[in-house]
Amino acid sequence: MSETNNHIRILYHLARADFLERVRRYSFVLTMGISIYLGYAATTGQLEMRVGDSRGVFNSAWIGGLMALVCSTFLSLAGFYVVKNTIERDRLTRVGEILASTPMSKTLYVMGKVLSNFMVLAAMVVILAISGIIMQVWHAEAPRVNLWKLSGPFLLIVLPAMALVAAVAVLFETIPALRGGFGNVLYFFVWSVALATPVIASENNRSSLFDWAGLSVIWSSIGAAAKLPANQFSFSLSVGSRNLAQGGPTFQWNGVQWTAELILARLSWIALALALALLAALLFDRFDPSKERSRRVASASAPALVPAKVAENLSLERTWIHAPPLTRLANRQNHFRFGAILLAELRLMLKGQKWWWYAVAAGFIVACAATPSASARGMLLACAWFWPVLIWSKMGVRETRDQTSQLIFSAPHPIARQLPAVWLAGVGLALLTGSGFGGRLLFTGNWRGLLAWLIGALFIPTLALTLGIWSGSSKLFEIVYTLLWYVGPMHATLQLDFMGSAPGTEVTRVPTFYLACAAAMAAIAILGRKRQLQT
Amino acid sequence: MKLAIDGVSKQYAKKFWGLRDLRLELGPGVVGLLGPNGAGKSTLMRILATVTRATEGRVLWNGHDISRSPDTLRAVLGYLPQDFGVYPHLTALEFLEYMAAVKGLDARSARQRIDELLAVVNLAEARDRSLGGFSGGMKQRVGIAQALLNDPEVLIVDEPTAGLDPEERARFRNLLSELSGERIVIFSTHIVSDIEAIATDIAILSGGRLLAHGAPEDLLRAVEGKVWEMVIPSAEMSAAKQKFLVSTSVRRTDGVHVRIVAAESPGTGAVPATPTLEDAYLHCISSQRTSAAT
């Protein structure tokens, strides 16, 4: 019994310390700000839920359902990126190595981290729940607040979904391949598919076993209340500026009838979260650097840290007496060559890429140049410019991440020389990887198309550099760019076609807009770097 | 060649100052910056290296205010921070080539200089290996090499011997001594023996303030006649530490041989000893603490 108590105490302190460390950071304030904005958007009608042309009366059940869907959809995406850094922080601060030397088990550590993730996500959910109460009072259509009907969807739909997100975030951190940028990008696609699966099943009048976000629980109940024929039933949760109070007919929905079976189904997601946490504990390397892949590669190619010959040179006599003299530089004047620093940045950017990365990039170039269909070519350009996302995401971040900022920023003209070199290296990469598409435009004399493509090549690295400098992390660009890329070029959404990849974009004002964005972001990046230099 | 620190202060929080009204004038030679942890050494180093701006006061390099025109100093600066990283996927050679480009060295000079520096820091054999596989001491040596790339007129090294083994430390001290002739070398440490043999000037910081500045001889003169050696029984050691400023103590068969810094003889059997820089440093820090307490 005392051992169990001890475990609970350790778990509590692990989660508490981690939670406090997070909530005292500015990023947490920003996260809370986003939650408050979502609550505000729902209250003022910018976020709305509709069934066909109708909406429910603003009673506690409807508002609880709306807010629960907002949490399940938006927070399950944004929340993942907010919490997916808990083990990484212990790794970076080296606290992990101290923890690893204690008797604490891997399972306990991972469970503590999942619990802390869950607490952070739950704090965001609480903000939205409070917004729900404000929303009901604001609209005053059904002034009596029924706490159970309002909070039920949060407790039984949102919290199990958040437990799952908390566990998946830790699982990603314990798998070396998913720990970094690749995991960030992959989660977006996993999330899209996982969210869409029950939606597609529901559209085909089938229930889905994979409704982890609880979407179908709410809309099947709403569908029944709206009394719409199955073929006319359409459900939407949209972000816009429609005025809810005036929009269309209303109907009464009194909330989900929580049966034991339904509750059990929802609680099973918590069980799955626990199972994933146990899997994460199994995979967790306990901060053993020898288990890191890069270390394995390094040690495989170099058997000892100090080769025998070097070790020999360290002998007292040789190091003291035969140390070679250091001659003075003949010319100590600076001979700044922009080409040299640009090449150095480009090499730094591409260093460590495997041969297959180049092979795929080359494949996209050839495919872009050879594909006759303009639409298909556009899709291929989108793919070609998604391929280097993890390289671009390190722009503006590398100095902070690798702790070289003091070395770089104490060199002459860090803003006038090194920063443009980083940016141009990123632009060069875009031009190179998109050259199949650009070459074709050049060959066919499509000058406006070429200009739109060029603007795309300027926009992407500028976005990466700006977000990297201001956030100090690769993550923000990876998320924002993936989202933009998916909604924009991949779905040929004109307003978001920053690449100029879709046929016809070049004759619109869209490229000019993204050129202006790139210019503004470049200015913001310079300001950010100036701020870094003046701390 | 003159680096003047004119009333420099750095405020970190509303009531916390990392540095207060520091005034120093530095010329060619090795300046040893001594002080306990948290004295403000690294803050001063970062300000001098143009990485951080002073809240008050100014730093003048040959008459130019470095907060207004930092590049006048950066062009001739070599800086080794206390905590720094390297790009793990680059080799030592590639990293130094990158830093040479950033510092504006021409290709030929850079190649020649990098070859020499890799030999000087004993990494010639490891030049083509990824930095990710380097030990802490080897990374530190890469840091030393990058600081010397542009043959700097001002070399700022913050705790440079941390992580180096005894031979490497000795080698680095010798290197700095050789380099010091026509440049300003600022060497921050809390290990007195690191600068004892090479510093031409010593500045002692504590609590963000400058306690003393002068030639080592001047500091030693201040404790002349105040250092004593005596042998005391082990049982009395604790009481002696409470009563006197004990500089060193060594256990022997006849008792504990202690070195005490005191204005007057600490007791019977105490004999005057020749002061060392460590005695002078401890005396300086202890005097400041005593005056702050009263």
- How many helices of chain A? The count is 24
Give the overall shape of chain B: globular
Physical arrangement of strands within the biggest beta sheet of chain B: 6-7-8-3-9-10
How many strand units of chain B?
14
Q: Give the C-alpha Rg of chain B.
A: 21 Å
The CATH fourth-level homologous superfamily of the largest domain in chain B = P-loop containing nucleotide triphosphate hydrolases
Largest sheet data of chain B: 6 strands, mixed
What's the number of domains of chain A? 2
Oligomer: heterodimer
Topology readout:
The complex is a heterodimer of chains A (535) and B (294).
Chain A: H1 2-23, H2 26-43, E1 47-51, E2 55-56, H3 60-83, H4 86-92, H5 95-100, H6 106-139, H7 147-174, H8 181-203, H9 215-226, E3 235-239, E4 250-251, H10 260-283, H11 293-301, H12 308-313, H13 316-321, H14 338-350, H15 355-370, H16 374-384, H17 389-392, H18 398-401, H19 405-409, H20 414-433, H21 435-444, H22 447-471, H23 475-487, H24 510-533
Parallel strand pairs in A: 2-4
Antiparallel strand pairs in A: 1-3
Helix pairs in contact in A: 1-6, 2-3, 2-6, 3-6, 3-7, 3-8, 6-7, 6-10, 7-10, 8-23, 14-20, 15-16, 15-21, 20-22, 21-22, 22-23, 22-24
Chain B: E1 3-13, E2 16-26, E3 29-34, H1 41-48, E4 56-61, E5 64-65, H2 70-74, E6 77-80, H3 92-103, H4 107-120, H5 136-148, E7 154-158, H6 166-179, E8 184-189, H7 192-196, E9 201-206, E10 209-214, H8 216-222, E11 227-232, H9 237-243, E12 245-252, E13 255-261, E14 271-272, H10 277-293
Parallel strand pairs in B: 3-8, 3-9, 6-7, 7-8
Antiparallel strand pairs in B: 1-2, 1-4, 4-5, 9-10, 11-13, 11-14, 12-13
Helix pairs in contact in B: 3-4, 4-5, 8-10
